[in-house]
C-alpha cells in the first residue's frame, strides 16, 4: 500500500477505505469503520455483504445493492476467469449464499460508477451517501472507496455527528500484511 494513500486516508473527513480487486479491506479511516463495521480492515466486502446479517441491516436497499455488486464483479473478472482467487471467492460465496448463486447465474455485467445509496446507521439513522471509487496508481487493482453526502443535507449533518463520535474512538488497525502483487512499485 503506498504510504501516500495511507496518509490521504488519515486526512479525509469522509468515510474512506482501500480494497484490493477481491474486495478485501486493506485500510480504512476511523469514519469508515464508524459508519459500518463491514468497512474495517480485514473484512472481505463481498463475503460480508452476502453472509453477514449486519449487511442487510445497514443497507435498506440490500437487494438492489447485491445485484449491482455481482454485475460489477462479472465486469471486473472479464476474461480473467482463470484467476484462482476469484474462482475461490465465487465458490465460497456460491456455497454460503443462495442470493449470490442466483445473481451469479444471471450473467449480468455492469461497470462500476458513481452511485448513491442509503446506509442505515444504528445511532444516527439513514444516510444517503454517494460512493466514488478511485484507482490507486502504481498498484495492482487497489481502489480507494469514498462515501460522501450532499453538502448541507440531513445526511451531511448526520455524517458530521458520526465523525465527531469517531474522532474520540481509538484508531482502527490497518492491514499491514498484503500480497506481493499489491505493493507499490517502489517497494518491489
Would you give an account of this structure?
- This protein has about 190 residues and is α+β, with helices and mostly antiparallel strands.
- Helix content is about 40%, strand content about 15%.
- The chain has helices at about 5-10, 30-35, 45-50, 55-60, 60-75, 85-95, 100-105, 155-165, and strands at about 15-20, 25-30, 115-120, 125-135, 145-150.
- It starts with a helix and ends in a 21-residue tail after the last helix.
- Mean pLDDT is about 85; it is low at about 175-188.
Concise structural overview:
With 188 residues, the protein is an alpha+beta fold. The protein has 8 helices and 5 strands.
Give the topology, please.
Blueprint: H1 3-11, E1 16-19, E2 25-28, H2 30-35, H3 45-51, H4 53-58, H5 62-77, H6 84-96, H7 98-105, E3 115-121, E4 125-135, E5 143-148, H8 154-167
Antiparallel strand pairs: 1-2, 1-5, 3-4, 4-5
End-to-end Cα distance, whole Å, is 12 Å
Mean pLDDT: 86
- The fraction of residues assigned to DSSP E strands is 15-25%
Radius of gyration computed on alpha carbons: 16 Å
Net shape: globular
Task: List low-confidence stretches.
Answer: 175-188
**Order of the strands making up the biggest sheet:** 2-1-5-4-3
H and E string? HEEHHHHHHEEEH
Q: SS-based structural class?
A: alpha+beta
Strand tally is: 5
Major sheet details: 5 strands, antiparallel
Helix content: 40-55%
Please, how many helices? 8
Amino acid at each position: 500500500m503506498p504510504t501516500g494513500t495511507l496518509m490521504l486516508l488519515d486526512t479525509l473527513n469522509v468515510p474512506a477505505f482501500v480494497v484490493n480487486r477481491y474486495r478485501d479491506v486493506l485500510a480504512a479511516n476511523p469514519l469508515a469503520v464508524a459508519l459500518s463495521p463491514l468497512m474495517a480492515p480485514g473484512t472481505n466486502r463481498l463475503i460480508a455483504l452476502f453472509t453477514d446479517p449486519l449487511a442487510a441491516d445497514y443497507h435498506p436497499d440490500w437487494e438492489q445493492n447485491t445485484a449491482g455488486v455481482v454485475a460489477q464483479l462479472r465486469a471486473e473478472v472479464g476474461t480473467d476467469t482463470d484467476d484462482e482467487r476469484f474462482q475461490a471467492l465465487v465458490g465460497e460465496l456460491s456455497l454460503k449464499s443462495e442470493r449470490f448463486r442466483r445473481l451469479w447465474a444471471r450473467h449480468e455485467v455492469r461497470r462500476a460508477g458513481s452511485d448513491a445509496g442509503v446506509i442505515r446507521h444504528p445511532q444516527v439513522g439513514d444516510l444517503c451517501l454517494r460512493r466514488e471509487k478511485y484507482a490507486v496508481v502504481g498498484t495492482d487493482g487497489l481502489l480507494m472507496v469514498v462515501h460522501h453526502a450532499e453538502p448541507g443535507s440531513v445526511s451531511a449533518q448526520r455524517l458530521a455527528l458520526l465523525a465527531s463520535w469517531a474522532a474520540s474512538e481509538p484508531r482502527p488497525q490497518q492491514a499491514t500484511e498484503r500480497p506481493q502483487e499489491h505493493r507499490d512499485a517502489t517497494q518491489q
